Amino acid sequence: MRAGSGALGSTHLNIATAATTPVYRRARLTDLDRVSSIENERFGAHSYPYFALRQLFDLHGASWLVVEVEGRLLGHVLVALAPQRRAWLLSLAVAADSCGRGYGTALVEQALRLCGSLDVGSVLITVRPTNQSAMNIYKRAGFEWAAHDERYFGEGEPRDVLECRLGR
Ligand SMILES: CC(C)(COP(=O)(O)OP(=O)(O)OC[C@H]1O[C@@H](n2cnc3c(N)ncnc32)[C@H](O)[C@@H]1OP(=O)(O)O)[C@@H](O)C(=O)NCCC(=O)NCCS
């Protein structure tokens, strides 16, 4: 099942459907421990420390999305609203044992939908140029290359900046 589809078609009979259907919802304060462990697992030394996640929650909790399946949080996308109808996707991560099932794609789609509903005109994200998996997701979702900074996060940490323009 595509992770973004929500449920199987009505012609299918699958008693596991309701339990395994991914739920996309706003993050809660009680999610931060799990978000923190996914961040550590996926970003290592580049993950947000817990104290930063806590502060980001105070700033951007209302636009922070998570995906959960059978009550287990599997991934998150942190959307930060910015001036001039802009938004940044500050983090996107899916637990390693749950990758390749469409959750990352669906989180980005949900984030863009949320931004559209909030009248955001431009959504931005930084991505390591060699991160092909993430790059594919963003390109398919409508992001285009906007800039490159060889030292975006300091020496040896180049990033591309991608932008997705949302229509009015
Ligand atoms: C990047 C990341 C978020 C992707 O999450 P994901 O849940 O694996 O993403 P998806 O499943 O939607 O897509 C990944 C691949 O699985 C494929 N896929 C999508 N739905 C699928 C499904 N239902 N079944 C099997 N494969 C599927 C996609 O085609 C994609 O393949 P491609 O990159 O070769 O085109 C995840 O790998 C991650 O957390 N990486 C580490 C952190 C990171 O790099 N974050 C981005 C920073 S900019």
TrEMBL record:
InterPro entries: Acyl_CoA_acyltransferase, GNAT_dom. SUPFAM superfamilies: Acyl-CoA N-acyltransferases (Nat). Pfam families: Acetyltransf_1. Keywords: Transferase. GO terms for molecular function: acyltransferase activity, transferring groups other than amino-acyl groups. The keyword Transferase applies. Residues 22-167 form the N-acetyltransferase domain. This is GNAT family N-acetyltransferase. It comes from Nocardia panacis.
